[in-house]
């Protein structure tokens, strides 16, 4: 398989998975898969932009810039993007569960947690994007299409994919864990008569049984 078909295939596989999941598997929109698919499409399209020097450094950093723009834009919009990832992880199955989760996200402590964690992820990706750009600019200096160019690209990829990708992955996981932990803690603080470890949706259901009057007191 040549370079062009390989780039096309790498871009189309995530898109195909999103469509298969949406129409045939879960038949529900999977935000995380769609987001990763969008990133893959952008990277796949940029593969046909044959440049070197500073433009190549920019090209290799566009994926991270896209993440910063999307996460940062969600803060300006007033809907921190990490909430979509947490919702995907908790997997609400009914409209009632979705509405309950949205109400919890709207409560001030949870809204603050979502804002801080989303802002932290945007900042981290901005930092790693800047580092990635500088490293590419510093290491990849050969003209495009030469053997030395390919060697330099392989060298910088080996350096950045681990040193930058692993921290991004770990921090994303910790941010999602922090929000889910905060959700559990808030529910347990209200349901003082509930003992032992409970599933998140069991806690939400137990809170719902308290009645709308008492539940409304907690929306602060």
UniProtKB/TrEMBL annotation:
Keywords: Membrane, Transmembrane, Transmembrane helix. The keyword Transmembrane helix applies. It comes from the Bacteria. The chain crosses the membrane at residues 6-24, 31-51, 63-90, 110-139, 159-181. Signal peptide: none annotated. The keyword Lipid biosynthesis does not apply. NCBIfam families: VC0807_fam. This is MFS transporter. The lineage of its organism: Bacteria, Bacillati, Actinomycetota, Rubrobacteria, Rubrobacterales.
